[in-house]
What we know:
mainly alpha
Amino acid sequence: xxxxxxxxxxxxxxxxxxxxxxxxxxxxxxxxxxxxxxxxxxxxxxxxxxxxxxxxxxxxxxxxxxxxxxxxxxxxxxxxxxxxxxxxxxxxxxxxxxxxxxxxxxxxxxxxxxxxxxxxxxxxxxxxxxx
Length: 131
């Protein structure tokens, strides 16, 4: 095992977990994931209903949209949820088209917030089933 003064990296923790030497209670982590998804969705919905500058859209791409439209897709693919990942990719495509364009107007006019809400709730329900 590690000396107390040695830093333990996330890679070390994964290795210990997979070797059965580190026990992790996944329930709180899964509940936190659901909360993060819902909070992120709420932030996206509020943001997309207002007009912003091109710079504000660029900043929001990383902070607001990455968790759902990049990281979320990757996690769904790793979980074998290709159909749901495909639905997120459709919204991602609309988002990227907006970002490659003039970035004027409200984002909600370029992508379906209703669709994003529905698929995000479906994603949260998949996580909930694991609890």
